[in-house]
Write a structure and sequence with these properties.
By secondary structure, the protein is of the alpha+beta class. It has six helices and 18 strands. The longest helix is centred in the N-terminal third of the chain and has 8 residues. The radius of gyration is 18 Å and the shape is globular.
């Protein structure tokens, strides 16, 4: 099942994609797609609905972030060996965790804004996952049972803010528009193996990142088990699982995003984003 949120910013309605690719309105069956409605029972109820009988969204409706009211975004750094190497960092012996402010979340095609004072804005396509049930101290064999679904996430970063001066990753990761999320949330039952997904990103139609989740250092189940040792993951939380090689930071010299650039990225089976870069 592919779940979406559509409509104007701040007024999105819940929906699903039917077999013909039409967005169907779920507002008569669920208030929104967030931590209150991503539990297994609610997802099973939505899955049983005859999609073709639901009202169709207006053609060309904007797609918003595929999940609403995200409590926290937990991110994993350096989770692909080649990306650690290009970043001139040691390959980690355990997952590197950091956070992004949920206020950075935006729709999959809303665009990326270079923040005032930003000079080194970079891209990072990632497999994102959304928590469907509370996770505390979970073992790896049971970890994936807590995943409501998977989506595309672009961990946009301002590298000077992240790495220079006092550094601090959260500071360089949290500007408005730095978290394009979607286009849709594919429920976990349709992603039998999250470690076999192709992911890619291009800038102005030039391929920059091209890899597979098979190359993660720490797979999804390991990440969830590890994170849950240190914090509770709540329904509706987002986990970003790391980016492969090919970011601007790894180039010599780097070529960071500029106003007018077009960033496209996607994950196999999870859809595609298109972001126009604009100045502050």
């Amino acid at each position: 099942m592919k779940l979406v949120r559509f409509g104007a910013p701040g007024a999105e309605r819940p929906g699903m994609i039917d077999a013909d690719g039409i967005v169907r309105d779920l507002a008569g069956h669920v208030g929104d797609l967030d931590g209150r409605t991503l539990d297994p029972a609610t997802l099973a109820r939505l899955r049983s609905l005859p999609a073709a009988s639901l009202p169709a969204a207006a053609p060309g409706s904007r797609l918003g972030p595929c999940v609403a009211n995200v409590g926290k975004i937990v991110c994993v750094g350096l989770n692909y060996r080649e990306h650690a190497v290009e970043s001139r960092q040691a390959v980690p012996s355990e997952p590197v965790l950091f956070m992004k402010a949920p206020s950075c979340i935006t729709g999959p095609n809303d665009g990326i804004q270079i923040p005032a004072g930003g000079t080194e804005v970079d891209w990072e396509v990632e497999l994102g996952l959304v928590i469907g049930s509370t996770v505390r101290h979970v073992g790896e064999p049971d970890a994936l049972r807590h995943v409501a679904g998977y989506c595309v996430f672009n961990d946009v970063s301002e590298r000077a803010w992240q790495l220079k001066g006092t550094g601090q990753w959260v500071k360089g990761k949290s500007a408005d528009s730095f978290g394009p999320l979607g286009p849709w949330l594919v429920t976990a039952d349709e992603v039998p193996d999250p470690q076999r997904l192709h992911l890619w990103l291009s800038v102005n139609e030039e391929r920059q990142q091209d890899s597979s989740t098979a190359h993660m250092i720490f797979p999804v189940a390991t990440l969830l088990s590890f994170i849950s040792r240190f914090m509770t993951l709540c329904p509706g939380d987002v986990v970003a699982t790391g980016t492969p090689a090919g970011v601007a930071l790894g180039r010599n010299p780097p070529r960071y995003l500029r106003a007018g650039d077009v960033v496209r990225c996607g994950v196999e089976g999870l859809g595609e984003q298109r972001s126009l870069v604009r100045a502050a």
